[in-house]
């Protein structure tokens, strides 16, 4: 796992509002994201606490951005987190990831 650039990054967990349909939270049938770590955006939308702040930082993000990080709810994380990766589904680099890493002072050399 040490070659996973996300483990020494975390930039996307502290730059974007992580919002998702409310039924992903575990107070809805079949939901799994801990509802206590979410907040209401509007009737049908929740977000991870902390990501609607300025500056944003997800409440579930542990560690220091750009050094060593972990997601406290990795197995239960919401869909935006599952869908945002270093690479796009077609295997090409995720340009938004690259930009966020650059803003955090991280290179993209370790991403392949
Ligand atoms: S910005 Fe990219 S490298 Fe950094 S944690 Fe997010 S997906 Fe991983
Ligand atoms: S739930 Fe985990 S992966 Fe998603 S933004 Fe928060 S710390 Fe990052």
Helix content: 10-25%
Strand percentage: 15-25%
Q: Write down the domain tally.
A: 1
> How many strand segments?
5
Poorly predicted regions are none
Largest β-sheet summary? 3 strands, antiparallel
Strand order of the largest sheet: 1-3-2
- In terms of quaternary structure, the protein is single chain
Radius of gyration: 14 Å
Q: Termini, distance in Å?
A: 14 Å
Number of helices, where a helix is a run of at least 4 consecutive DSSP H or I residues: 2
Spatial shape: globular
The succession of helices and strands, N to C, reads EEEEEHH
Distinct ligand kinds: iron/sulfur cluster
Task: Briefly note the structural class of the backbone.
Answer: alpha+beta
Mean pLDDT: 93
């Amino acid at each position: 796992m040490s070659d996973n650039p996300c483990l020494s990054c975390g930039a996307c967990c502290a730059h974007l509002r992580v919002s998702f349909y409310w039924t992903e939270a575990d107070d809805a049938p079949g939901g799994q994201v801990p509802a206590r770590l979410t907040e209401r955006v509007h009737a049908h939308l929740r977000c991870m606490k902390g990501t609607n702040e300025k500056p944003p930082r997800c409440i579930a993000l542990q560690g220091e951005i750009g050094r060593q990080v972990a997601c406290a709810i990795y197995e239960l994380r919401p869909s935006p987190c599952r869908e945002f990766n270093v690479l796009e589904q077609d295997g090409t680099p995720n340009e938004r990831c690259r930009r966020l890493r650059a803003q955090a002072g991280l290179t993209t050399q370790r991403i392949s």
